[in-house]
Each structure stands twice: as structure tokens, then as C-alpha cells.
Structure to design on (405 residues):
């Protein structure tokens, strides 16, 4: 039988709220309520929810925010339950509730967090206990020049860890990893590379300057030697630090990086730098994003992919271009044999930005380097976070408690 608007509305309603919820509502209809059920099914669920202007997740967020703002807690709970059952990420719920606190009030957001936590638990996704301390971030800028934005977390003692981000991003790339490490008893430092985030640019941006920044930040922290964790551009900085300042490095984690880019990649960096200077980050975003994330992840996690896109678009074009040129000129190959610190190299099986062959050459150049290949593209912190964190925990647990021990 051909579908009418009520049939289509019921299908949409079941897709959003779940079969059980809708069947219960419609089965309990009476002569008095049945016309209303038909009306909202046809008008709201087919006529409004069936429109093409917004994706389903955005509509869910709007519905939750509106019902929370109006104090319609039963309807809010219904939409939260449906969103959690559909797999909405905890971070998405958190962001929605933080926005609600701004525009709906703190009491509403408190109720929202309580209901969301109950729904997560009911679906077997109860958040793990987490003391507040690992979440506390101390942000400041260095006194030395160029001023560098630094974020500290964790206790004052323990094996210190420094996290250095990828091209076009900033210290927020490491938020989940930093919280985890702080909770495990590690002092953690993140910073924004020159021309990224809130860090200034110096008169000349090359790999030597970026390595000097890392050494300067660690010296001001006075917490070394450190485990230097660098991803992509950050991995080149970490290599340079281990070569030029071995006394400041306890161990290395080199993720999705290389010691040297081949000529074709160098040309790409130079071309991209010129285009970004002329036209801004929007001119290259569609070229860059598929090199950072796999096609499967972008299809499976559109919200996370959209957030990464926004962060890349907000990068300073001047800073991005300068670091592109620094990467094009970088060559750490001659110094790899001098690296004696314990090293874990992490590769992405689907990485187009730093293909596996480049990272295997890195492993061969560093004595006794461990190597792990994860099922992801260029950002394991986003595509394979659990595997990355578990591997990092194992690597850190195997280090001597005292430097050189």
C-alpha cells in the first residue's frame, strides 16, 4: 500500500524516538487522543522533522535545548533517551548542556546533566568516576618571546609529559589525552605552536625555531626531562628536541610523523602556504580534511568531522603558511641515529599525510624504536583514541621511574 504523510511521519517518529516509545504512545491512544496523535505525526514528525534543511542530530539538539529551556522535562528526557540510544557522543551532550547553561540557566543545565547521566547509565554507557583535579587546566603565556600559550594539568610530581599538536590545530587536540594522563598521575604540559592558537609568531618560523620553543617551554616549566609526545608536525619538533637537547627528553612518542617529506609533499606544502596566504584557510580545507580523517570516519562521525573542520578553519592563515614552509624544509634523517631515548612510533594504516612507508623509515632510523600501526588516518587521538591511550599507558608504564634508570 502506498505511504501517506501519517505513515511517513510514523516512520520518522520511530527513527528518532525508537520503536518501543512510539508504539506505546500510539497503542494507548483513545477516541479522544487519536486525532491528536495523527495530527502531531503528520504535522510535526512528517511536516517538520521530515524537512531536509537540518540533519537529524541537529534537530535532536534543538529539541533537547527547547524542551529544557521550557522546563518540559518529560519531553527532554524522551529526546535524551532517544539520542543516547542512537549513539550520540557524550561530548555532544556535554556541549549542548553547557550552551543550555548560558541561555536557559544553570538550574536547567543541572537537571539536564542529571537526566543525561541517568540515560547514559541506562544504556550501559555510564561515565567512569572522574575526580575534578585532572580536569583543572592552568593556562598562561610564557614570559619569554615569542609568547607561547601553555596549559598545565595534573600533579606536581610523576613522569612529566609534553604534548605537541599537528599542523593547523592547537593544544585542544590533546584534551582527552591530557585529562587521562593527569588522572593517571602525570604532570602534563600542552602548548600552542607558533602561529597557532594563542601563541605569537617569531621573526622567523622554521623547524629550528619550533624546536627552540619546545626547549624554552620545558626549561620554564622546570619539570624535565620529559616524555615528548608529538603528532605530525609535533613529531618533527619532538625529534629535533631529542637530537638537540637530549638532556630534556626522557622518552619519545612519535605519532603519524616522519623525519623528512619527499619532494612531492614539499611542493604541496609550499603551494598550500601560498594559497592560504592569498585566500585563507577555506581555500585548502577540502584538500586538508581528507588527509587528516579517513572517509569511513567522516561518514560515521559527521559531527566530530565538522568540529575538526571548524578548528582548521580558525587557524591563523599566516601561522599555518609559515609552518607549512617549515615542514617542507625539515629534514631530521641525519640525526635519527643520535636518538637514544626510548621511542614509540605510532602509525595510521590509512594515513595519507604521513604514509606508513615514511614512518617505517623512521622506525629503522631510531635504535630500538617500538612501532604500532593503528586502524586510522592521520589523527589517532580522534579516530582511535582508546587504542592510542592504551598504548601510551603501556609505553609510559614501561619507562624507568627515574631518568636514565
Amino acid at each position: 500500500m502506498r505511504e501517506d504523510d501519517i505513515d511517513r511521519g510514523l516512520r520518522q517518529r520511530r527513527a528518532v524516538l525508537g520503536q518501543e516509545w512510539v508504539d506505546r504512545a500510539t497503542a494507548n491512544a483513545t477516541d479522544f487522543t487519536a486525532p491528536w496523535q495523527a495530527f502531531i505525526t503528520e504535522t510535526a514528525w512528517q511536516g517538520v522533522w521530515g524537512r531536509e534543511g537540518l540533519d537529524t542530530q541537529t534537530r535532536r539538539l534543538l529539541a533537547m535545548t527547547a524542551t529544557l529551556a521550557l522546563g518540559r522535562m518529560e519531553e527532554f528526557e524522551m529526546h535524551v533517551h532517544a539520542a543516547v540510544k542512537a549513539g550520540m557522543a557524550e561530548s555532544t551532550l556535554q556541549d549542548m548542556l553547557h550552551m543550555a547553561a548560558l541561555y536557559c540557566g544553570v538550574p536547567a543545565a543541572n537537571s539536564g546533566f542529571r537526566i543525561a547521566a541517568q540515560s547514559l547509565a541506562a544504556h550501559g554507557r555510564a561515565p567512569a568516576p572522574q575526580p575534578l583535579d585532572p580536569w583543572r587546566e592552568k593556562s598562561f603565556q610564557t614570559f619569554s618571546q615569542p609568547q607561547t600559550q601553555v596549559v598545565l594539568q595534573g600533579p606536581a610530581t610523576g613522569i612529566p609529559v609534553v604534548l605537541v599538536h599537528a599542523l593547523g590545530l592547537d593544544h585542544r587536540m590533546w584534551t582527552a589525552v591530557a585529562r587521562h594522563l593527569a588522572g593517571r598521575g602525570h604532570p602534563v604540559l600542552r602548548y600552542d605552536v607558533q602561529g597557532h592558537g594563542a601563541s605569537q609568531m617569531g621573526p622567523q618560523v622554521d623547524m629550528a625555531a619550533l624546536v627552540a620553543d619546545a626547549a624554552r617551554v620545558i626549561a620554564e616549566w622546570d619539570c624535565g626531562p620529559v616524555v615528548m609526545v608529538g603528532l605530525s608536525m609535533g613529531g618533527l619538533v619532538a625529534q629535533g628536541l631529542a637530537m638537540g637537547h637530549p638532556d630534556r627528553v626522557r622518552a619519545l612518542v612519535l605519532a603519524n610523523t616522519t623525519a623528512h617529506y619527499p619532494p612531492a609533499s614539499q611542493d604541496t606544502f609550499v603551494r598550500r602556504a601560498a594559497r592560504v596566504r592569498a585566500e585563507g584557510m577555506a581555500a585548502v580545507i577540502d584538500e586538508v580534511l581528507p588527509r587528516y580523517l579517513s572517509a569511513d570516519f567522516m561518514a560515521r562521525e559527521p559531527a566530530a568531522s565538522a568540529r575538526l573542520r571548524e578548528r582548521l578553519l580558525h587557524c591563523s592563515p599566516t601561522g599555518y603558511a609559515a609552518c607549512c614552509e617549515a615542514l617542507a624544509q625539515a629534514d631530521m634523517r641525519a640525526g635519527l641515529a643520535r636518538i637514544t631515548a626510548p621511542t614509540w612510533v605510532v602509525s595510521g594504516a590509512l594515513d595519507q599525510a604521513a604514509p606508513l612507508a615514511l614512518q617505517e623509515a623512521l622506525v629503522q632510523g631510531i635504535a630500538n624504536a617500538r612501532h604500532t600501526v593503528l586502524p586510522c588516518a592521520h589523527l589517532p587521538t580522534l579516530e582511535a583514541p582508546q587504542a592510542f591511550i592504551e598504548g601510551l599507558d603501556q609505553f609510559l608504564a614501561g619507562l624507568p621511574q627515574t631518568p636514565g634508570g
User: Anything to note?
Assistant: Residues 31 and 357 are 70 Å apart (CA to CA). The radius of gyration is 25 Å. Residues 135-397 form a domain with the Rossmann fold fold (CATH 3.40.50.1820). The first helix runs from residue 5 to 17.
